[in-house]
Specification:
Number of helices: 7
Strand order of the largest sheet: 1-2
Shape: globular
Distance between the termini: 16 Å
Largest sheet: 2 strands, parallel
Number of domains: 3
């Protein structure tokens, strides 16, 4: 198997006609979606078995609904609702004064964007053991361990190899 650098691949892709670039992007997105879906399915199965419990901010619901609503995909809207409000072991937390004040502190001292500050403040307020994200822009915080989903996926792939 050959190894290529990012720039070598980028140069090859940029030479493709736009329709082929789009097809390649769709194929890559499907592969990534399948891998993430499999890993997340395993994660939620563990939650459902009671191996762990999860808290999520209402912001997760808000952000997750944008594309399905834009596309008129009512089935996916219902799936998000069921996931975040009916999954055993998962509790969706609404914004309250305590979370808002913690989010303001995070914005003031760590320059975190408002949606992210609400998410992180929810985790801190609910005394979560860690915060699972894929946002590499989030700073490390003294009172909350940040776990990157991509890193966990890579670890899982390495264990399978």
């Amino acid at each position: 198997m050959s190894t290529y650098t990012y720039h070598e691949i980028l140069n090859q892709v940029q030479r493709l006609p736009p329709a082929d670039q789009l097809r390649l992007l769709e194929d890559l997105a499907a592969i990534i979606r399948q891998q993430v879906t499999t890993e997340l399915r395993l994660f939620f199965q563990a939650v459902d078995r009671g191996d762990c419990s999860v808290v999520s901010s209402i912001v997760t619901f808000l952000e997750g609904l944008v594309i399905p609503i834009r596309q008129g995909n009512t089935d996916l809207v219902r799936q998000y609702h069921n996931l975040l409000f009916k999954t055993k072991g998962l509790k969706t937390i609404f914004l309250d004064q305590q979370i808002a004040e913690e989010a303001a502190r995070l914005r003031a001292f760590h320059k975190i964007r408002t949606p992210d500050s609400i998410q992180v403040a929810t985790a801190i307020t609910m005394e979560a053991a860690f915060f699972l994200t894929n946002d590499k822009r989030l700073p490390s915080l003294p009172n909350l361990k940040i776990l990157m989903l991509d890193d966990l996926l890579k670890e899982g792939q390495e264990k399978e190899s």
